[in-house]
Amino acid sequence: MKKLYGYLSPYKKETVLAPLFKLLEAVFDLLVPIVVKQIIDVGIANGDKPYIWSMVAVLVGFAAVGLTCALVAQYYAARAAVGFSTGLRRDLFAHIQKLSYAETDRAGTSTLITRMTADINQMQAGVNLTLRLFLRSPIIVLGAMIMAFTVNAKSALVFVLIIPLLSAVVFTIMIKSIPLFKKVQKNLDRVTGVTRENLTGVRVVRAFCKEQEEIERFHEANEEHNRIQNFVGKVSALMNPLTLVLVNLGLILLILSGAKFVDSGEMTQGDVIAMTNYMAQILVELVKFANTVFTVNKALACGHRIEDVLDTPAGMEIASKETYPDDADSGYAVRFSDVGLTYAGAAEPSLSGIDLAVPKGATVGIIGSTGSGKSSVVNLIPRFYDVTAGNLYIGGEDVRTIPIRSLRDRIAVVPQKAVLFRGTVRSNLLWGNENATDDELWAALEAAQAKDFVMQKEGGLDAPVTQGGKNFSGGQRQRLTIARALVKKAEILILDDSSSALDYATDAALRAALKALPEAPTTFIISQRTSSLQHADVILVLEDGEPVGVGRHDELLLNCEVYREIYQSQFQKGGETA
């Protein structure tokens, strides 16, 4: 947790002033029973009304000063807590952005969302209550005991008995509840995950009439979360009744002893009232402290979860160039040398034995059945994942020796899922190159076969794009993501099944436009259509993560059974398109 404490460093003044003003408030609260004692023993006993009214004025003054101190303390505590959560959320988001695909997969999207939102909000509440109440309550408890001794030492022995018992109850429940709160947050991750899946896949759920099954799945996750939450609640609920029993026992003992001491003349009625007031103050503060403890316990559990993410190594290590020998032939844009990939936690490799040399400016097609590892191959090029066997070279350099930013600046990727961000067509295209001119944007749209429908939109380049690009069809979203990649004018262009929603004519026009690009990028095209790949310079055929064919279209039809089966399933015998 030391790393998280550093986020309070810019707010040192606030973290000092907030508890300081709470301490001042506590001091005035501790003086109130003494004033009440004087009103009873002097004012009421002697019938001195002016004295009574003067003491009432003192009480009002104490209340006004205490309220002012409380408001100032609340202001500084809120300022520190909000600033703490703002800095932490900013750095956590920045750190998540740096995580590799492997680390993001391992943590899980729903878990990261929960830690970015609910966990940090809980930390903010914990910091706020800690600054305001975590010191005030112990000070009131100890101060009340000390003040009780100034009233009557013998009667104050009751405080010596009760306070250790109360402390034992509070800290025992606190120690027991911390690990339980961690389980609560873990189950919350699961509920968030199920919810996220249903919201993102709502169309699929409705298309297959799976609403009831998904409701039951959510109900199962929610009930498990509810069960753990209830158990934690039962443990936490012991706090108030146990403290109430002990404090009321203390009050009974005070009244019994006070009655004897008043009868013997060792105490006055005002002394008894003051003692009971101090015991009541202890009761109120312990209730506050109990709530603070629970909030802080949750905050600590959340803090450990956030720290786990921050401790996850960001990005991938850059190996020294001496570790991996440079490729002698830098004429190749990309070369796979016996490359293999095993995902974290997987029992078997997803890729193995990939050997492929791609000249600069060449077009590479990758085809295979679903799950054969096509996307895994291209994900190795921008180093979204690291090879776990063999070597991958970009321009003669081992990919692990190239700084990540430098590497990805040379590569443009069109992912399998067409993702657009809320804004405009222009703002989405400028992701490829923030300095691109309007002419360059229109040229990219034309090459991506997107110019016509963008021109028809009101505003053209400034036409609005809703979240996820939902105001565009699937094919339009794909063409816009291709245009975004083309704006970058990268050395290597990766199209990961990014034309699946396009008709054959548009797909053919797109391939012709890519061939005519002036920057002549080295292009990797993943597709399920042999028609999209038959003009590629080389085609890699995958089956269960292993290459079963490498060559041109005509060669593979002759000597690769897998490719021939895919081709024949899409084309009629005799070569006519179906």
List the keywords.
578 residues, alpha/beta, ABC transporter transmembrane region fold, Rossmann fold, 2 domains, 6-stranded mixed sheet, 4-stranded antiparallel sheet, elongated, disordered C terminus
TL;DR of this structure?
The chain has 578 residues and is an alpha/beta fold. It is built from 21 helices and twelve strands.
How would you describe this structure to a colleague?
- The chain has 578 residues and is α/β, with parallel strands linked by helices.
- Strand 9 (492-496), helix 18 and strand 10 form a beta-alpha-beta unit.
- The radius of gyration is 35 Å and the shape is elongated.
- Helix 7 (157-200) packs parallel to helix 11 (269-311).
- Helix content is 63%, strand content 11%.
- The two termini are 64 Å apart.
- The protein has 21 helices and twelve strands.
- The chain has two domains: 2-191 and 224-311, Up-down Bundle (ABC transporter transmembrane region fold); 360-389 and 399-570, P-loop containing nucleotide triphosphate hydrolases (Rossmann fold), CATH 3.40.50.
- Strands 6-9-10-3-11-12 form a six-stranded mixed beta sheet. It has a four-stranded antiparallel beta sheet with strand order 2-1-4-5, with no helix packed on it. It has a two-stranded antiparallel ribbon with strand order 7-8.
- Residues 573-578 have low confidence and may be disordered.
- It has helices at 2-5, 12-46, 49-98, 101-107, 109-134, 136-151, 157-200, 202-207, 211-237, 239-264, 269-311, 374-379, 404-409, 425-429, 438-447, 451-456, 474-487, 504-515, 530-533, 553-559, 561-570, and strands at 332-341, 351-359, 363-368, 389-394, 397-398, 411-414, 423-424, 464-465, 492-496, 522-526, 538-543, 546-551.
